[in-house]
């Protein structure tokens, strides 16, 4: 699927403004994360937000476990380089405090925020400050007595639509929706269903996805499948890891579908019995080095000096490794031969020159 095909097929949604970042409409699919610091501890939280912004995070969400955390958002918002969303569970009063603190958006969970009157108070406060609300449905936190005989995807959609109708009845339409579960097929079905029912932007993700080894795969399958169908306006890859890993994974998913280009792309062969150099170690070292580069350069590390340049001819720069020496190439054209001891330094220099 080409970039133009993907863009043409993208579901048309209402655009909302989250602290200056547009979500939905024709805006690029944004990459989000969530802080893993104690929100009540302002300085470490701001430091992590700044670190994530430098990695490419465009919207950050902070957990709000109590009133102290809600109040801390005031200072966090002042010092944050990117829009801040307050993540609210259980106590609607925390949402009211967060709005007063100046947050750019809210995420509320309809499964535990409380009754209609409490939601109404939150909506009225959000409306006054034009603060968008994400209706964030998690499959694992739906009330047990809510439509117990229906499949999970239907329960998630019904729960979200109940909140949509409530918000709309209050003349509020700055809405974003997420329907996250651990189960990929259930999540896909839920998003596909609701995408045909509303035109609000959708936030994609898999909840409780796991550690990077498995969580990235689960997220790439779920998020990638939906994006390939034109569904989704903003994403978060939820991982049991430092949130920087979430940003890297998010952009890799978007790059793999040619939806956005952010930073380098590494092409590397898997290595096999024909390989006569340590391609695996070289590729890992280059991957680490590329983390500090923000330019959209395509780099190839290949294990065959005969076929490598041809197999990775669309790479901007690359190396094809052979026994004792390798061939540096640019766009498939050979540049020079380098000794095995110089593979890393020579390729890194070519990347920097490019």
UniProtKB/TrEMBL annotation:
It catalyses: (2E)-4-hydroxy-3-methylbut-2-enyl diphosphate + oxidized [flavodoxin] + H2O + 2 H(+) = 2-C-methyl-D-erythritol 2,4-cyclic diphosphate + reduced [flavodoxin]. Residues 13-250 form the IspG TIM-barrel domain. Keywords: 4Fe-4S, Iron, Iron-sulfur, Isoprene biosynthesis, Metal-binding, Oxidoreductase. Binds 1 [4Fe-4S] cluster. InterPro entries: Dihydropteroate_synth-like_sf (IPR011005), IspG_bac (IPR016425), IspG_bac-typ (IPR004588), IspG_C (IPR058579), IspG_TIM (IPR058578), NO2/SO3_Rdtase_4Fe4S_sf (IPR045854). The keyword Iron applies. Pathway: Isoprenoid biosynthesis; isopentenyl diphosphate biosynthesis via DXP pathway; isopentenyl diphosphate from 1-deoxy-D-xylulose 5-phosphate: step 5/6. One of its GO terms (molecular function) is 4 iron, 4 sulfur cluster binding. Its cofactor is [4Fe-4S] cluster. It holds the Pfam family GcpE_C. Transmembrane segments: none annotated. [4Fe-4S] cluster binds at residues 269, 272, 304, 311. Its EC number is 1.17.7.3. Residues 266-353 form the IspG C-terminal domain. One of its GO terms (biological process) is isopentenyl diphosphate biosynthetic process, methylerythritol 4-phosphate pathway. Belongs to the IspG family. Converts 2C-methyl-D-erythritol 2,4-cyclodiphosphate (ME-2,4cPP) into 1-hydroxy-2-methyl-2-(E)-butenyl 4-diphosphate. HAMAP family: IspG (MF_00159). This is 4-hydroxy-3-methylbut-2-en-1-yl diphosphate synthase (flavodoxin).
């Amino acid at each position: 699927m080409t970039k133009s095909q993907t863009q043409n097929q993208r579901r048309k949604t209402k655009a909302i403004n989250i602290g200056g970042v547009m979500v939905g409409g024709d805006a690029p699919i944004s990459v989000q994360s969530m802080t893993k610091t104690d929100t009540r501890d302002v300085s470490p939280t701001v430091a992590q937000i700044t670190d994530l912004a430098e990695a490419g995070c465009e919207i950050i969400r902070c957990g709000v476990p109590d009133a102290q955390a809600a109040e801390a958002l005031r200072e966090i918002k002042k010092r944050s380089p990117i829009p801040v969303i307050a993540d609210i569970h259980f106590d609607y009063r925390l949402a009211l405090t967060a709005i007063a603190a100046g947050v750019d958006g809210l995420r509320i969970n309809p499964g535990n925020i409380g009754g209609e009157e409490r939601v109404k108070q939150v909506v009225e406060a959000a409306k006054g400050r034009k603060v968008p609300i994400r209706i964030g449905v998690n499959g694992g936190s739906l009330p047990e007595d809510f439509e117990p005989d229906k499949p999970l995807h239907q329960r998630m959609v019904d729960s979200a639509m109940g909140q949509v109708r409530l918000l709309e009845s209050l003349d509020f339409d700055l809405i974003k929706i997420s329907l996250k579960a651990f189960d990929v097929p259930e999540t896909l079905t839920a998003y596909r269903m609701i995408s045909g029912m509303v035109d609000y932007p959708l936030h994609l993700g898999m909840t409780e996805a796991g550690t990077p080894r498995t969580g990235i795969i689960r997220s790439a399958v779920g998020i990638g499948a939906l994006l390939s169908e034109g569904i989704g306006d903003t994403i978060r890859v939820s991982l049991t890891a430092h949130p920087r890993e979430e940003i890297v994974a998010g952009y890799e998913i978007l790059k793999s579908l040619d939806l956005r280009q952010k930073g380098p792309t590494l092409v590397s062969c898997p290595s096999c019995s024909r390989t006569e150099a340590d391609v695996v170690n070289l590729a890992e070292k280059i991957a680490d080095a590329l983390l500090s580069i923000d330019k959209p350069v395509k780099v190839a590390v290949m294990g065959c000096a005969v076929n490598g340049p041809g197999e990775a001819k669309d790479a901007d720069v690359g190396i094809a490794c052979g026994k004792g020496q390798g061939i540096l190439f640019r766009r498939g054209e050979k540049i020079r031969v380098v000794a095995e001891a110089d593979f890393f330094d020579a390729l890194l220099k070519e990347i920097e020159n490019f």
